[in-house]
Amino acid sequence: MLKVWISGANGHLGQALCTRLDREKYQLIATDVAEVDVTVPAEVRAFADANRPDVIINCTGFNDEDGCETDPDRAYRVNALAPRNLALAADVLGAKMVQFSTDDVFAKASHHPYNEFDAPAPESLYGKSKLAGEEFVRTLCHRYLIVRSAWVYGIGRDFVSTVLNAAADPTCPWLAVPTDRFASPTSADDLTAAVEQLIDHDTLGIYHIVCQGRCSRYDFAQAILKAAHMEDKLELHPIRAADAGSTPSYTVLDNLMLRLDNLPQPRPWKEALNEYINSLQ
Question: What is the CATH number of the domain that holds 28?
Answer without folding.
Answer: 3.40.50.720
